[in-house]
Design brief:
The protein folds into 2 domains: about 35 residues, no CATH class; about 90 residues, 2-Layer Sandwich (GMP Synthetase, Chain A, domain 3), CATH 3.30.300. About 35% of the residues lie in helices and about 35% in strands.
Length: about 140
C-alpha cells in the first residue's frame, strides 16, 4: 500500500505561498505559508499535519492493542502537540483521555505505552515522544 500527497510552492520562503493536496482529496489545494507555519496566519503547516497523523495513528494502534488484550474502548481522544524549535521538531506529545470499560490502570498504561512505541508514525518520527494517558 502506498499513500501520496503533493505540495506546490511559489516564491520566496518568507513571502511565498504553497498549496498541499492529498490523493484522497481530504486536502485539496490547502494553503500554507510562512505565516501559517511560524505565526498565526490562515492555512495549515507541516507540523499540524504531523500532529494529525500522529494522534490518528496512535489512537488506532491503541485500539488494536486494547482489542488484543481483551478490551474495547468506548472512547479514545488524543491530542498531539508538535514542538518545532530552531528548525527541528523536538517533541511530539500525546495527550490521551480514554474510556475503556473493565480495564485497570496498570493494564491501561501498559497498552498505551505499547501503542506509543509501536504505532507507525511514532516509529517514523526521529524525536522525543511523550505521553500522558488518563482513564476518564
Amino acid at each position: 500500500m502506498k499513500r501520496s500527497a503533493t505540495a506546490n510552492w511559489k516564491g520566496t520562503g518568507k513571502e511565498g505561498k504553497g498549496l498541499v493536496s492529498t490523493a484522497s482529496t481530504v486536502l485539496s489545494n490547502t494553503q500554507y505559508s510562512f505565516n501559517s507555519r511560524f505565526a498565526e496566519g490562515t492555512g495549515t503547516n507541516p507540523e499540524e499535519l504531523i500532529a494529525a497523523a500522529h494522534s490518528g495513528c496512535f489512537a488506532m494502534k491503541l485500539s488494536f492493542v486494547l482489542n488484543e488484550a481483551g478490551f474495547t474502548a468506548d472512547d479514545l481522544t488524543v491530542k498531539c502537540t508538535i514542538t518545532f524549535e530552531n528548525g527541528a521538531i523536538t517533541n511530539s506529545h500525546l495527550d490521551l483521555k480514554a474510556k475503556v470499560p473493565g480495564i485497570d490502570a496498570g493494564k491501561f498504561q501498559e497498552c498505551a505505552a505499547d501503542a506509543k512505541a509501536n504505532c507507525p508514525i511514532s516509529k517514523l518520527l526521529n524525536t522525543n515522544i511523550t505521553l500522558e494517558a488518563r482513564l476518564v
